[in-house]
Design goal:
With 469 residues, this protein is mostly helical. 77% of the residues lie in helices and 0% in strands. The radius of gyration is 22 Å and the shape is globular.
Length: 469
């Protein structure tokens, strides 16, 4: 037990040092305060949103959001060794101590999971609840609700984390996982559609103060995490891989891009040859979209006349930006620093790759419209998706350049990103309830803003020095 605690504390210190080295102690220390401020403002906005949604619906949305949040954090079993090496370069991490120290791989991996959960609890969950506590006098609710909310939101986060943790382990082990995932999605969507969403244990605890719901949540978390930890594949064997030169072939296929085709071809080859290949990109994209489907299913069911496919297309466009993170994950700018290549060209090649991969999102949108019998609204949904996707990508490029996975750890960058994205998308969604004409007008303005942001991104990172992480 003492060894496990010592290992855990060392990992916590390591996490802090990694972040403070990148961004400094002050920015990392201020991050929870910024999150709390954002939560306070968000809670005050509930007074406006009450015009369209009941408080019960908004509380349900927040719990699904935390389930979502946990699901995005939970892909530990999928990321494995490669993403950590790519992100932190030659840093010697405790996660690989099993190679030189008498510590089991499962103990180390469980320490990684526990450390990340603790990190997100203090950096995100606790500050969000603190912001709610500050807003309680304005909302007309008792501050005693804050600790109850802390328990329910933490439970939602951990359930999402443990579910995807297990699914990602299955994916790495089995590789024929889509059937299980789709079956889980169908069952979850059916439950939401039948009105069982309020039976979600963390939410049920908040609404009824029944501690049995907490015990159910805790039991589910322990069982799912325990099974995943038993079968996790962490230390992948060193293999010698040999490939034929594929650059010329892929470059010819992308010749329509002109001089950028070689850069885009390299990105696709890097993704294909990395552990998990294109499968991990699709997997990391399907997980948030599954929860988005469930949430939109609920909202469209509660608000008659609301088009499922139009609302879904907005979320699809926002979450499709994860593709850009994967395109930059295996590329470092210092590899190009001595070559006659501008950052502008690299960004444009990532944009081209993003557009090509995002054709899968359009296929998903068509399938969703067919499943929901809304093919007649597919053109407007496709237009909404393209605007949301392009706007999200433009501000991602503007604020993070070629290093989104690292720069999003910077509190200042993350706050600027959310303060740009959330108000614009919320205003756009609200405009839909006044008629699609108003939504189209705002969409044109958003598209113009996206073009402006993209041009600024090209200029900003081309003129400035792109730091290599």
């Amino acid at each position: 037990m003492g060894k496990a605690l010592e290992l855990f504390w060392s990992m916590v210190l390591e996490e802090w040092r990694v972040h403070s080295t990148l961004f400094g102690n002050v920015r990392i220390g201020l991050f929870p305060a910024l999150v709390a401020l954002g939560s306070f403002i968000g809670c005050l906005s509930m007074l406006i949103l009450e015009v369209m949604f009941s408080r019960a619906q908004m509380v349900l949305f927040v719990h699904f959001l935390f389930l979502f949040f946990g699901a995005n954090i939970g892909a530990f079993g999928l990321l494995g060794r490669e993403a950590m090496n790519r992100r932190f370069g030659q840093a010697s991490l405790i996660a690989y101590s099993s190679r030189v120290l008498p510590i089991s791989e499962r103990l180390i991996f469980f320490g990684v999971v526990a450390k990340d959960v603790l990190y997100y609890f203090f950096m995100w969950i606790l500050p969000i609840v603190a912001g709610f506590a500050l807003a309680t006098p304005f909302l007309g609710v008792s501050i005693a609700l804050a600790p109850v909310l802390l328990v329910s939101l933490t439970s939602s986060f951990l359930i999402g984390t443990s579910i995807v943790y297990l699914l990602s382990v299955i994916y790495v082990r089995v590789h024929r996982f889509p059937f299980i995932f789709l079956l889980s999605l169908i069952v979850a969507a059916a439950l939401v559609n039948k009105g069982y969403a309020y039976l979600f244990p963390p939410l049920a605890f908040l609404l009824t103060s029944d501690w049995n719901q907490v015990y159910i949540s805790l039991g589910a978390i322990i069982v799912l995490t325990g099974i995943a930890t038993l079968f996790v594949k962490f230390d992948f064997p060193s293999l010698r891989s040999e490939y034929r030169n594929a650059l010329e072939t892929v470059d010819k296929l992308l010749s329509f891009e002109g001089r950028l085709s070689s850069h885009t071809a390299k990105d696709f080859i890097d993704l294909k040859r990395s552990q998990g290949g294109f499968g991990k990109v699709i997997f990391s994209f399907l997980i948030p979209m599954a929860f988005a489907w469930i949430f939109v299913e609920f909202v469209s069911g509660m608000l008659p006349g609301v088009s499922f496919i139009v609302l879904f297309s907005i979320l699809l466009g926002i979450f499709s930006s994860t593709v850009y993170s994967w395109l930059t994950e295996y590329d470092k700018y210092n590899q190009y620093s001595y070559l006659p290549v501008d950052v502008r060209d690299l960004l444009k090649s990532k944009l081209a790759g993003y557009c090509l991969i995002n054709t899968l999102s359009l296929i998903m949108l068509v399938l969703a419209a067919w499943m929901k019998d809304e093919l007649g609204r597919l053109p407007e949904a496709a237009a909404v998706f393209l605007v949301a996707s392009f706007f999200t990508l433009s501000i991602t490029m503007l604020y993070t350049g070629l290093s989104p996975s690292v720069r999003f750890m910077d509190a200042k960058v993350l706050v600027k990103y959310f303060l740009t994205l959330i108000p614009v998308m919320l205003a756009w969604i609200v405009s839909y309830f006044f008629g699609f004409v108003y939504m189209a007008m705002i969409g044109v303005l958003i598209l113009a803003g996206a073009v402006f942001s993209m041009r600024r991104a090209f200029t900003k990172w081309d003129e400035g020095e792109e730091q290599a992480y």
